[in-house]
Amino acid sequence: MELIADIFLVAGALGAGLYCFVLSRRLKRFTDLEKGVGGAVAVLSSQAEELKKSLDAARDASDQSSATLNALTERAESVAQRLELMMASLHDVVPQDEAAVEVSAEPEPTPVVAEDLPQTRDEPKVEDEPAAEPQSKKPGGLMFLRHNRSEASA
Q1: What confidence tens digit (pLDDT) does each residue in 93-144 have?
Q2: Distance (Å, rounded) from C-alpha 80 to C-alpha 92?
Q3: 8 Å CB contact between 130 and 109
Q4: Are 140 and 95 contacting, i.e. CB atoms less than 8 angstroms apart?
């Protein structure tokens, strides 16, 4: 009986040794840096580093864009306030009547006719063209309306 037990014990030890040998080879292939999971882990690690660098660059660019946009927004708000003040000051200006504008306009020059001038030289006659009337029609009515911001949020 002891002999049979020893044979089973040796057979078990040889089986365990063979299993360990096969497992060792598989583990070496698994952790190989070129073909196995080790290589995949190394590639993923380098890609993660590159992604982190590009993310940092994108964050820096967005921070700069945000700062520029904030500065432009503040500038636009100040310009809008000045424009609103100018528009409000235009309401104080009284528009002139069209009749008063026509009376104050300069009279049109009369064209020179060749018969009215004495014929002393053989120079070409130049007739003056009537000057175009400047249009001084002012817009009437309210163009912009300033809303109170406290009323808009309520």
Answers
A1: 766 665 455 555 555 556 555 555 555 555 555 555 555 555 555 555 555 5
A2: 19
A3: yes
A4: yes
What predicted TM-score, i.e. pTM, was given to this entire model? 0.38
Query: Which candidate, 136, 57, 48, places its Cα nearest to that of 100?
Result: 136
- Residues 105, 133 contacting (CB under 8 angstroms): yes
Q: What are 7-23's pLDDT values in tens digits?
A: 999 999 999 999 999 99
Contact between residue 30 and residue 36 where contact means Cβ atoms under 8 Å apart: yes
CA distances from 145 to 29, 77, 91, 101 (A): 77, 16, 12, 29
Instruction: Assign 112 to helix, strand or coil.
Output: coil
CA distance 35 to 30: 8
Whether the Cβ atoms of residue 112 and residue 130 lie closer than 8 Å to each other: no
The amino acid at residue 70 is N
